[in-house]
Structure formats: C-alpha cells, structure tokens
Amino acid sequence: MIDRRLFLASAASAALGLLVAPRAGHAEDIPAASSEFVSRLADRVIGILKDKSISKDDRVKALAAVFLDGFDVRAIGLFVLGIYGHKVSDSERDTYLDVFKEYVVQTYAVRFNSYAGETFKVTKTAPDGEAGAWVTSGIGKTGEEPTEVQWRVRKEQAGYKIIDVVVEGVSLLVTQRSEFASVLQRNNGNVASLTELMRDKIVELRQKS
Amino acid sequence: MSAAIGLNVGLALALSLWLPGCATPPTDPDARAAFEEANDPLEPTNRAIFQFNVALDDNIVKPVAKAYRVVPEDVRKGLHNMIVTVHAPVLFGNYLMQAAPNSAADTVLRFLINITAGVGGFFDVASMVGVPTHDTDFGVTLAKWGMGEQFYLMLPLFGPSNPRDAIGLGVDSLMDPIGYFATLLEDVGRFAFEGIDKREPLIEPLDEIRRTSVDYYATLRSLYRQRRADQIRSGKGGANFPAPSISGPGDMPNTVPEAASPAEPQAAVPNSAGMAKESQASAEVPAGRGAGMAETETVPAGPTEQSALANEARDPVGRPNVEQ
C-alpha cells in the first residue's frame, strides 16, 4: 500500500516536473544569473587578495582586470557626464572615456585592496527592469556586522555588467555624476578640462600608491 | 549638545547667510541645469567655510581623533555606547513627533536596559538581547513633516548641512535634558568629545575620498545629500536611482546617454529599482537600503520602524567633515 502511494506521489511530481521544467528553463532568470555573476567576481577578487605569491603591482593589475571585466565602464563614463554629455565632440569624448577608465581603475579597483580578509555573501536579489537586477550583499569581517552593498547589474550583449554600486544609500554613479557636474560647471562645460583634471589625479594617485 | 551649542548653530547659520558670495545663476541652459541640481546658491561662501573646516580638521580634529586611537577599541566602543545612551531622550522625542511608536518604545527599552544592565550605558546589552538600534534627529522629523532641505549649507565646525538640518541641530540640542544641567564648560567638553567619537571611524574613509576625488567639496555635498535622503527614508529604499540609458540588453549608446537630456534627467530604467526595493522592504530588517535618487528626498508614508542600523553605528558619509 505504502509503495503504491509513494509510486503515485512520485509519478505525480514527475509529471508536474515535466510541465514546469521546460518553462522555467526557457526564460532566463536574470536576478539569479546576476547574483551568480557578482559572486563569481567577488570570488575572483578574494582569490587575488589571498594570493601571497604575486607582487603588489601584479595584484593591482589583476584587480583592475576584474574591475574592467565586471563593470560597464563606458556606460558609466558617459552617464556621469550628465547634461554636459551631449555637447562633447566625438574625439573629446573618446579621450575622456580613455582617461576615465584609467581614473576609475586608480580610484575604485585599488579599493578592492581594502577588502582583504573580508567575506562576501549575497543576501538578496531583485529584478531591476527588463534586463537587470539588484544584487544585495553583505561584506565584512567574520563576527562583525556586515556592510550592505548593492550591485546594480545589467545583462548586455557582452554579458552581465555592473553599472552601479550602492552602499548605505549612497550611489557611486550619482556621486560621481554630481562631482563631475560641479567640475564641468566651473569650467564652462568643457569636458577636456575635466579630462585634464583626471589626468593630474591619476599621476598623483600613481605616485602615492 | 546643549542649548549653548544650539545657539552656536544659529549663529553659524546667520553668519553663513550674511557672508557675501551668492553665486549668480548661469545663463547657459546646461550650466543652469547643473546649478539647479547642485542646489547650492551659496557655493562660494560654502566653499570658503569648507576650506576653513578642512584646515581646522587637518590641524586639530583629525590629529586628536588619531591620537584617540591610543585608547583601546573596547573602551572607545563603550564610551561611544554611553554617548548613544544619554542621547535617548532626543531620539524618543523625535520618534514621538514622527509618530513612530515602535521606534520610540525601542528607544525607551534600550535606554532602560543599557543604563542599568549596561552599567550607565557602557555596554550595549540591549543589542545583545535583540532590541534594535535606531537613530534619528529633528532634521529627519522636519523632513517627515514635509520640509525639504531648502539648499545646501556648509556650517563652520559642523560641516555639510542645510537650513532644515541646521534647525534640527538646534532643536535637538534644546531637547537634550543634559544641556540644562551641565555648565558651559561641561557642555563644550561633551561636544568636543562627541565630535572626536564621530570623527575617529571616518579617518580612513574621508582620507580616501579626499585622495581620489577631483572635487572634494562636491563629492561630500553629494554624499551628505544621499546619506540624509537614506536616513529620511529610514534606509528602506522607496525612491529610485538613475541609470545609464540602455533600454534593452546590449545596445550601447554611441552618442549620448538618454539620461543626459536636461528635460528628463532620470529617464532611464524608470522606477524599477524603487519598486523592487519596496516589495522587499517588509521582509528583512535593514532591507532595501539604497535605491533612491540622491537629490530628491521622498518621504514614503508608513512605518519607520526599520530604521537603519547604519545610522546608529557608523555614519560613513553623513556630516563627515569636521564634527568637532
């Protein structure tokens, strides 16, 4: 009797599985994939930070590579120009984007260094529009209250990319855009002068690091 | 903080308003839009005060905060807990005014537990037994009542602020019963100590921001606004961040981001963040923090009970400059 009931139950669930499974497999689960994507990036960063065999220079290079791989630096760069973005000439924009890339590598990728010894855990994911997701994570040393960091991920042609990071209500993108807006406003909207300023900063940061 | 300090804030406010140096709104439409978004009509004066604050910080506040690290971390934490504990009446009053009975009740409970079992507030026993921490102030209360920030204001000594939050500082100090018992000297001492307590955990984060930014002043202005907006939302999300404009997957803009159009600065990915956050907000305690356009300060209706742990413990960017 028991066997038969078991058989029925398993047959039923198998049938249900057949009904449900193809559908689930069809639509890509963007939040889940985003979460996996962010976790993989974090694993790579943790791996680099743990590796004591590489030199400091190589470590920074490796971290920068992860950063450029994970973030859509071009989209971010264009976005943070804000309202001044539509005035810029093509060549000026391309120079700006090149320098911006170097600038964010120097400022943000290097920051990964300070995460040494910390753990990373995805706590929550939520869809963000049609092709994106918010991945919420806790970062911190074991035993301490983790800091909540939210990653805004979007599915693009080149794969999944991070477009913003939010820590305790503060968006990296919004902050960067406000800062640039201030610089541009004081320089009559001249993107080239912002590029110059970033160049100076890069030199300064390289000297100090 | 005490009545005396409150007066000080009033004076500072008056001084900043009086000082010459109102920025003239630019005529160029782009510059004008940026000017309005920055909402900093006193910028030249504010920058001057900021320079003064930074100099004061470099020469006095930060060195003292660094020296304070001689004190063992456990002791520093205990003293911090005491500061938080004796601040309870101000929190309680604000939560009543915000019609947040649960947070008000937690505040009373925390105070009673910590002042007794926590030996005068030194040990945060309340957190150990699971009474959540809260933080608020009269600036948040005013915001919840519907008052906007008005405009950005750099206060001498206190750092980033705005008229609403400056009024908040003054009112909070009037609500603080200790201010009525302490002598002026005791008041100043307590104020200075609280400043060092706040400055100490910010030494590295602020150094880093200053080191990497191309406009330190503008960065702090943005950070302050975003943090305050988050505190006002009680760390629950509820607004939405702008995003680079890519409607579908993959199509990278070759020319101009949609969000760069002055007409619709936050056109892209409308509200998806906010909605996603809100649907989650009820589920977890410090949920869905983030997701908020910085310069707009929406105050969602509803319970404020999920007040951010972050507000209390560390305030990595809120009012970061010279808190002396």
Q: What is the average of the pLDDT values of chain A?
A: 85
Portion in beta strands of chain B? under 5%
Largest sheet of chain A: 5 strands, antiparallel
* Overall spatial form of chain B: globular
> Biggest sheet of chain A, strands in spatial order?
1-2-3-4-5
Q: Of all protein chain pairs, which has the greatest interface, and how many residues does each chain bring to it?
A: A-B, 64 and 72 residues
Q: What are the low-pLDDT stretches of chain A, counting only 5+ consecutive residues below 50?
A: 18-26
Kindly summarize this structure in a few lines.
By secondary structure, chain A is of the alpha+beta class. Helices cover 57% and strands 19% of the residues of chain A.
Description:
The complex is a heterodimer of chains A (209) and B (324). By secondary structure, chain A is α+β, with helices and mostly antiparallel strands. Chain A has helices at residues 2-26, 30-50, 56-70, 73-79, 90-107, 172-186, 191-208; strands at residues 119-127, 132-140, 147-156, 159-167, 170-171. A 5-stranded antiparallel β-sheet of chain A has the order 1-2-3-4-5. In chain A, strand 2 (132-140) and strand 3 (147-156) form a beta hairpin. The termini of chain A are far apart. Mean pLDDT of chain A is 85; it is low at 18-26. Chain B is built from 15 helices and 2 strands. In chain B, a hairpin with a 3-residue loop joins strand 1 (153-155) and strand 2 (159-161). Chain B has helices at residues 3-18, 29-38, 43-67, 73-86, 88-97, 101-116, 125-128, 138-144, 163-175, 178-181, 184-199, 203-212, 216-232, 272-281, 309-313; strands at residues 153-155, 159-161. Chain B is 55% helix and 2% strand. By secondary structure, chain B is mainly alpha-helical. At the A-B interface, helix 4, strand 1, strand 2, strand 3 and strand 4 of A face helix 2, helix 12, helix 13, helix 14 and helix 15 of B.
